[in-house]
Amino acid sequence: MKLLALDTTQEYCSVALTIDDELIYREALASRSHTELILPQVEEVMAEAGLQLNQLDALAFGRGPGSFTGLRIAAGVAQGLALGADLPVAPVSSLAALAQGVYRKDAAALSVCAAFDARIKEVYWGCFQLIDGIMRSFSDEVVDSPENCHLPHEGRWIAVGSAWAAYPQIQDRLSSQLTRVIPDSSPLARDMIPLAIQVIADKQTVFAEEAIPVYLRHKVAQTIEERKFIKSGTNLDA
Question: Is the pLDDT of residue 145 over 90?
Fold first, then answer.
């Protein structure tokens, strides 16, 4: 399978290309420069592989949750590339990619709770368990307050993601169920590859125009605190 994956949902801007068993990837800590980095990264991996986009079988992108701006960049680039090359698109959860990255580094990782800081005292939260080498969602991904975040069952979990450092009270409350905490980790395109292959196998790809972000936060009205964040120029979903 020839599959291109891209992710701009968090701090890293990353692209990965798999050609059967070969993997080519680019990763960079992007801060706010995802827009400038993503297409050159795509061009680099495609050139290294000697492929054109229309020779790919599919394209995958990090559909969220994550940075509001980052999600729009990933979806927009995925739509543009897939439309031009007439490719199916595999949307991949950024929380699942984060969990998959833990397994890539530690084959003994069976249960992983991935959590991003969603700002305004909320977290993006997802729990995953390993099934046949794939981190499968154990419960719905949510955005919620740190006080409302719980692990779905007793057991030993690896915690990963920025929320664990931003809200240490979560770690304190759930410490008896945690084996390890990895706060300084981001989702990467190379960890999306096995997840995207599973999306394709499950026949859950979408047309290019249907490649849209998943924000999780669906609020019509804004609180006073949220309006203060916006006025100050802070990105609510950054």
Answer: yes
139 and 195, same domain (yes or no): no
SS (H, E, C) the chain: CEEEEEECCCCEEEEEEEECCEEEEEEEECCCCHHHHHHHHHHHHHHHHCCCHHHCCEEEEEEECCCHHHHHHHHHHHHHHHHHHCCCEEEEEHHHHHHHHHHHHCCCCCEEEEEEEEECCEEEEEEEEEECCEEEECCCCEEECHHHCCCCCCCCEEEECCHHHHCHHHHHHHHHHEEEEECCCCCCHHHHHHHHHHHHHCCCCECHHHCCCCCCCCCCCCCHHHHHHHHCCCCCCC
Tell me the average pLDDT of the chain: 91
Assigned domain for 235 exists? no
Tell me the residue range of the domain where 115 lies.
Answer: 95-182
Residue 231 pLDDT class (50, 70, 90 cuts): very low
In a domain, 213, yes or no: yes
Structural domain count, the chain: 2
Average pLDDT over residues 70-93: 97
Residue 164 and residue 99 in one domain: yes
Asked if 37 and 78 sit in the same domain, the reply is yes
Same domain, 123 and 194: no
pLDDT of 217-228, one tens digit each? 764 333 434 434
